[in-house]
Design brief:
By secondary structure, the chain is mainly α. It contains ten helices and five strands.
Length: 163
């Protein structure tokens, strides 16, 4: 299955030292568009994920085949989100990894299956790869400076059996 990722998922999971969950969930690897590579690797500095993404042999970067479509989506989304959605659509990806609400809605309207950072953590809890979803969500908000609504937090904890 082809999986395309936006930067937020890579950065968020890296911030809590859980990037390896993506490799466990998607053993064939993931694809990132050039804008995401630039954001995470080239512009990442000392930010979490920079080195791991750059050296992770399971993360592959690809150019977007339709830049005109990216320009259209840029009216509502940032460059990485727009490129991730277009690349996922063009490649026939089974999943696109996105966190931001508008990007998720756009991808879903285009018929793409969307999964985010919290969804990866719920999967990891359900499969025994993490001990406490609650602790990981706390770390994501604290160390990762991840914005997480109370409603999403509550739903994730219920889905993981920690409510």
């Amino acid at each position: 299955m082809i999986v395309v990722a936006n930067a937020s998922v890579l950065i968020g999971l890296s911030a809590i030292e859980r990037l390896s969950l993506l490799q466990a969930r998607f053993p064939d690897g993931i694809v990132v568009p050039e804008a995401v590579w630039r954001e995470v690797v080239e512009g990442g500095g000392d930010r979490p994920g920079t080195h791991a993404v750059q050296t992770g042999g399971w993360i592959h970067r690809r150019p977007v085949p339709n830049p005109a479509w990216v320009r259209l989506l840029r009216a509502e989304l940032d460059e990485g989100e727009a490129e991730a959605i277009v690349l996922a659509y063009e490649m026939g990806a089974g999943v696109v990894l996105l966190d931001e609400r508008d990007a998720r809605r756009t991808a879903e309207r285009m018929g793409l299956r969307v999964l985010g950072t919290v969804g990866i953590l719920v999967w990891a809890k359900r499969t025994g790869r993490v001990e406490s979803l609650r602790a990981d969500l706390d770390a994501l908000v604290g160390r990762g400076r991840f914005r997480l609504s109370q409603a999403l937090r509550d739903r994730a904890l219920r889905e993981a059996g920690e409510a």
